[in-house]
Amino acid sequence: MAENDPHKLLGEALRNWAKGELPSEPPRRWERFSDVVILPSGSFEQQEWGALDGLWDVVAEALGAKRVARMGEVSGDFRESGVEMLLGDDDWVVRRENGVDYGYRMTSCMFSSGNVNERRRMGEIGDKGEVVVDLYAGIGYYTLPLLVNSEVSIVHACEWNPEAVTALEWALEKNSVRERCVVHPGDNRSTTNNLEGVADRVILGLLPSAEDGLEPALRVLGTGGGTMHIHGLAPSKDHWEWGRRVEDTVHEAGGFSKASSQIIRVKSYAPHWDHVVLDLTLA
User: Fold this and answer.
1) What CATH code is carried by the domain that includes residue 33?
2) What is residue 143's three-state secondary structure?
3) Considering the entire predicted model, what is its pTM?
């Protein structure tokens, strides 16, 4: 094992600090960026760990961080992250990815590193002059790559979590793309009423299902149709079991016919389930 292996460094630091056997094995994985390390949910939660003073300082020093946090369950209508700060009071972080700066509060907004390829893809597929509606914009997961890395004309970003809206507004200024984005705070079922027929492309990036957004998505598409990127969870063994059902739902809503479709696998979500995106072009 290499001398600078982070798992070995953490284990040695904890054993030196505890002066003996550890209450349990330390985590084997974590997320590290900027000056933050985010531990997996459940890490160091045994009662014996809590009886030892200075634990988080030891973890931070061993992993080269200044702040330590622990993952929690995503919850609520606003999909709040559940991250708990363990060392440090400031929960604001900035991530840079594919030339895009994302800023957000860890304890209130979520960020999935596993979606990196889909964020990159969004920055590659936007065509020059397109009008895009992002129905679940969040902190700008897909809005920002489209604005920074493609030549779309404008993105209408819909989001109802006030914390995420604040983060998105910060990032639009930070990435110098504010003039090409209109933010629509609130429920997209009502905020899209004034966007009827404007969109060439619609993003429905909500898990576990974005199907509640199909009605507003069809509403904002132009009369000539366009492309919808519909996120959801599909059985790992057959993504099209889910995809065909979503296509049927869209067709039942009427107004357009299918021109083409494909399914993109984003990542594994749970045993036997994948996070996927249905690219559905309508005409």
Assistant:
1) 3.30.300.110
2) helix
3) 0.90
Question: Residue 170 is part of a domain; what is its CATH number?
Answer: 3.40.50.150
The answer on 152 and 40 residing in a single domain is: no
**Could you read off the pLDDT of 177-232 as tens digits, one per residue?**
999 999 999 999 999 999 999 999 999 999 999 999 999 999 999 999 999 999 99
Q: What is the distance of C-alpha 18 from the center of its chain?
A: 37
- Check if the beta carbon of residue 197 is closer than 8 Å to that of residue 226: no
Secondary structure of 68-111 in HEC code, one letter for each residue: EEECCCCECCCCECCCEEEECCCCEEEEEECCEEEEEECCCCCC
Question: How far are the Cα atoms of 153, 244, 258, 266 from residue 276, in angstroms, in the given order?
Answer: 27, 13, 19, 5
In a domain, 105, yes or no: no
> Which tens digit of pLDDT belongs to each residue from 18-68?
887 888 888 989 999 999 999 999 888 877 776 667 899 999 999 999 999
By residue count, the chain amounts to 283
Question: Does residue 185 sit within a domain?
Answer: yes
What residues make up the domain containing 216?
A: 112-282
Strand extents, DSSP E, 116-166: 131-134, 154-159
Give, in order, the Cα–Cα distances in Å from 193 to each of 50, 63, 167.
Answer: 52, 49, 24
Q: Which residues pair with 222 in a beta bridge?
A: 225
Domain end residue (candidates: 45, 60, 90):
90
For 221-279, the pLDDT digits (tens) are 999 999 999 999 999 999 999 999 999 999 998 789 989 999 999 999 999 999 999 99
